[in-house]
Each structure stands twice: as structure tokens, then as C-alpha cells.
Design brief:
Length: 242
């Protein structure tokens, strides 16, 4: 049976003032997939993530989710469609405790499954359970990233957008986070769209990947194909992990 397309980005152009950041981007994510978007810093990866979520708006092109056009939809309505985002820089609520941050994530679902879902995220990230009464701003960088992902999961998303989850973290913490993403995909069938500068880790994790250069998607293929591609290796993997 053919995979069902969950997210479709067609010909999307995004601007900051008069500067075009995305030049007619085409990307698709099928239900149950992990799809990675890799590229250098400043390539437009985070801009695409934010455009999908409605801020900034696409000035041209179309974004559909589960067959519904969301291009002009306000961000809070996009979130209600069960798209959740763990943004670049984590953006947790620093003055709130771990528990309160999770409650904010669950508020979209009106807290209906809070106990069940918090137990799930504590199983994925046991460190958060140990820190349950601690303020978010006092957590380590790795713990804040775990909390950012956990808060997004509390909304019971159909699609999880992850923007640079490994940025600035120690390799052991990165492994824990990538293992958690793999586990969610395998056991819950969660669809994940992942932006990463850590090309090796992202492509190993992903079913498919896209390469972005200066606001354009220049290559696409399976994770295995892109890992083996000489151009990808030269640009993103040489001198790194193999």
C-alpha cells in the first residue's frame, strides 16, 4: 500500500523583509516516516520549519497537512491540527518547573491524558522525572532539550517538528535524544521532520533526507543514499563521524 503523504510543501517562498530566504522549496513527509533536512548554518532549514508553523508566512507556494491547506492558517490553529514543534534554542519556560512545562504542552489536549502521557515521557527521559519540581532555566542544556521534546509530545502530535535537537550537546546526550526519537517512531508510529546540522546522526536516523543550500533543496534520497553520496560526504561528513 502506498504511503500516505502527511505534510506537503510545494514551491514555498519565504522572505524576511525584501530578502528571500526560501526559493520555491518542495518537501514531503509521509505518515510514519522520519525525514531529515540537513544543510549548513544559514541554509534556510529553520526558516522552513517556522514557515510550516505559520511564522513567518509563506509568500508563495502551498503547505498542506493531512490534506488540509495550512498556508494561511494562524499558528495556534496549526498546533490544533496536531503538529508540535521543538524549536531551535529549546524555548522552554525557564521560570516554570518541569511539571508546569509539561502541563503547558498538554493544554492543547485539555490535559485529558496528562498522567498517562507524562509517564510516557518520563520513561523516555527518566532524568526529567528526577527534575520534576525544578525550574526549567536551572536544567542543563541536555535536560532542557529533553524537556522541549517532552513538552511537544504532551500535545499528542501526528507530526513532530524537531529543529536542531543535538545542537551544543555532548555526544552521549545526543545519542539518548536520537534513541528516543527512533523509539517513538518505532513504537508509536510518530512522524518526525528533523532539521539537523549533525548530518551523520540525522541521516542514520532518517528514512529519507533532503539537503538544503541557500534556500534551495538541492538533493533528496533515502538516508542511506545520502550518506553514501560523494557530494554530501564532502560537504557535511568529511572530517566528521563515518
Amino acid at each position: 500500500m502506498a504511503a500516505r503523504t502527511l505534510l506537503q510543501v510545494e514551491g514555498v517562498q519565504t522572505y524576511y523583509g525584501n530578502i528571500r530566504a526560501l526559493n520555491g522549496v518542495n518537501v514531503s513527509v509521509n505518515e510514519g516516516e522520519i525525514v531529515a533536512l540537513i544543510g549548513a548554518n544559514g541554509a534556510g532549514k529553520s526558516t522552513l520549519m517556522m514557515t510550516i508553523f505559520g511564522s513567518p508566512r509563506a509568500r508563495a507556494g502551498k503547505i498542506t497537512f493531512s490534506g488540509t491547506d495550512i498556508t494561511e492558517m494562524p499558528t495556534h490553529e496549526i498546533a490544533r491540527m496536531r503538529i508540535a514543534q521543538s524549536p531551535e534554542g529549546r524555548r522552554i519556560f525557564p521560570r516554570m518547573t518541569v511539571m508546569e512545562n509539561l502541563q503547558m504542552g498538554a493544554s492543547l489536549d485539555k490535559m485529558r491524558h496528562f498522567n498517562e502521557d507524562s509517564e510516557k515521557v518520563f520513561t523516555l527521559f527518566p532524568r526529567l522525572k528526577e527534575r520534576i519540581a525544578q525550574r526549567g532555566g536551572t536544567l542543563s542544556g541536555g535536560e532542557q532539550q529533553m524537556l522541549s521534546i517532552a513538552r511537544a509530545l504532551m500535545a499528542r502530535p501526528k507530526l513532530l517538528l524537531l529543529d536542531e535537537p543535538s545542537l551544543g550537546l555532548a555526544p552521549l546526550i545526543v545519542k539518548q535524544i536520537f534513541d528516543a526519537i527512533r523509539e517513538l517512531n518505532k513504537t508509536e508510529g510518530l512522524t518526525v521532520f528533523l532539521v539537523e546540522q549533525n548530518a551523520f546522526g540525522a541521516l542514520k536516523l532518517a528514512n529519507r533526507g533532503y539537503v538544503m543550500v541557500n534556500g534551495n533543496v538541492t538533493l533528496s534520497g533515502s538516508g542511506v543514499e545520502l550518506l553514501a553520496n560523494p557530494d554530501v560526504r564532502a560537504a557535511y561528513l568529511e572530517g566528521g563521524r563515518h
